[in-house]
């Protein structure tokens, strides 16, 4: 190989390293800003910053000198997906992928430049994978902590319209529940609901079916007492997704918490056709949960605008609703009413136990 060809190859390697060091550092900075200002987590912010600084230490003047932006054919290339982001999650995912890909390129091409740099980039790539897992889990848990109202769907000819109306009213947590539909129908509806919820920045949970939750990229799954063990669901879903468990008494509550549930349902507070044949757990169980539950919990079962303040008065701070929204004439207004009552409770306002007669 001639000296000219050798120099040309070496310069190309330098340009590749320079470009991907920039790409990885830029991707990390975008993620770091969300960890700092969006999630307020100092641990993940610091991890992003440390990785950027470690990459900067490899970004030598020798590599920077090889840069030729006017002569780079890639500056003119773009893809429509790069020109818009639908939500924070898609923005974070795009930049995590960008960083991981850049680190993989650095790992390989560094073998021609400095093998120690290649090894360092390999370890950084694994750290970004770990960051990705923690970031998505943290994001979902933070959303869960902030969710006061949980809509559990029931079969309806107007399923999507009702759910969207509730989302427009401020709803931030939805569970798709339909015991009677076939798998193809459930997949289609779950996929559409997931997209709808994420468009509004809400969490989307699938009832019972771990496989369906994975297939539609849901935020988690909700399990009944007769469904698969939480440990099995965790193995399948990983640490990034949420797992909820229905409970009807203190023993079931404590077991669900010990097994690693992210949240629990507490009820049924009142008898409801959604749980036909199951006696109401009553307000006493709500009182127990208020003093003993160490994870987010939602009072559920027959809660409506007429009795919601009774439920809040005995300690509930979050509620899950089925018919109260799914069968409402004005789902947006009913959602706003529930949220206003829950917000008052959260703010410590006095909530009288008397019921309301209208919305």
From TrEMBL:
Keywords: Magnesium, Metal-binding, Thiamine biosynthesis, Transferase. Pathway: Cofactor biosynthesis; thiamine diphosphate biosynthesis; thiamine phosphate from 4-amino-2-methyl-5-diphosphomethylpyrimidine and 4-methyl-5-(2-phosphoethyl)-thiazole: step 1/1. Its EC number is 2.5.1.3. Mg(2+) binds at residues 208, 227. It catalyses: 2-[(2R,5Z)-2-carboxy-4-methylthiazol-5(2H)-ylidene]ethyl phosphate + 4-amino-2-methyl-5-(diphosphooxymethyl)pyrimidine + 2 H(+) = thiamine phosphate + CO2 + diphosphate; 4-methyl-5-(2-phosphooxyethyl)-thiazole + 4-amino-2-methyl-5-(diphosphooxymethyl)pyrimidine + H(+) = thiamine phosphate + diphosphate; 2-(2-carboxy-4-methylthiazol-5-yl)ethyl phosphate + 4-amino-2-methyl-5-(diphosphooxymethyl)pyrimidine + 2 H(+) = thiamine phosphate + CO2 + diphosphate. Gene3D superfamilies: Aldolase class I. It is an enzyme of class 2 (transferase). Residues 15-133 form the ThiD2 domain. InterPro entries: Aldolase_TIM, ThiamineP_synth_sf, ThiamineP_synth_TenI, ThiD2, TMP_synthase, TMP_synthase_cyanobac_bac. Residues 149-325 form the Thiamine phosphate synthase/TenI domain. GO terms for molecular function: magnesium ion binding; thiamine-phosphate diphosphorylase activity. Pfam families: ThiD2, TMP-TENI. Signal peptide: none annotated. Belongs to the thiamine-phosphate synthase family. This is Thiamine-phosphate synthase. It comes from Lusitaniella coriacea LEGE 07157.
């Amino acid at each position: 190989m001639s000296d000219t060809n050798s120099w040309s190859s070496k310069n190309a390697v330098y340009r590749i390293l320079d470009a991907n060091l920039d790409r990885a550092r830029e991707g990390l900075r975008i993620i770091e800003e969300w960890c700092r200002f969006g999630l307020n987590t100092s641990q993940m912010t610091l991890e992003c910053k440390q990785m950027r600084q470690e990459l900067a230490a490899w970004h030598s003047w020798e590599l920077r000198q090889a840069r030729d932006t006017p002569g780079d054919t890639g500056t003119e290339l773009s893809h429509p997906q790069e020109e818009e982001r639908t939500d924070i999650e898609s923005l974070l995912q795009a930049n995590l992928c960008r960083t991981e890909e850049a680190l993989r390129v650095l790992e390989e091409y560094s073998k021609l430049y400095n093998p120690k740099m290649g090894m360092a980039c390999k370890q950084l790539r694994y750290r970004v994978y770990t960051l990705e897992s923690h970031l998505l889990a943290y994001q979902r848990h933070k959303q869960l902590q902030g969710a006061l109202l949980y809509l559990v769907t029931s079969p309806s000819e107007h399923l999507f319209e009702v759910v969207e109306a509730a989302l427009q009213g401020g709803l931030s947590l939805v569970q798709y529940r339909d015991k009677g539909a076939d798998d193809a129908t459930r997949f289609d509806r779950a996929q559409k609901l997931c997209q709808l919820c994420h468009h509004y920045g809400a969490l989307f949970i699938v009832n019972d079916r771990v496989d369906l939750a994975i297939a539609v990229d849901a935020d988690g799954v909700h399990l009944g007492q007769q469904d698969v063990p939480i440990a099995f669901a965790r193995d399948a879903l990983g640490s990034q997704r949420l797992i909820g468990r229905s409970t009807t008494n203190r023993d079931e509550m404590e077991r669900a918490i010990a097994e690693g549930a992210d949240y629990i349902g507490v009820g049924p507070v009142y008898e409801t056709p959604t749980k036909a044949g199951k006696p109401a757990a009553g307000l006493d169980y709500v009182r127990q949960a208020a003093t003993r539950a160490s994870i987010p919990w939602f009072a559920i079962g027959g809660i409506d605008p007429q009795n919601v303040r009774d439920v809040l008065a005995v300690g509930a701070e979050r509620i899950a609703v089925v018919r109260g929204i799914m069968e409402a004439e004005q789902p947006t207004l009913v959602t706003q009413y529930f949220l206003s009552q829950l917000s008052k409770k959260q703010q410590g306002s006095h909530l009288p136990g008397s019921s309301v007669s209208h919305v």
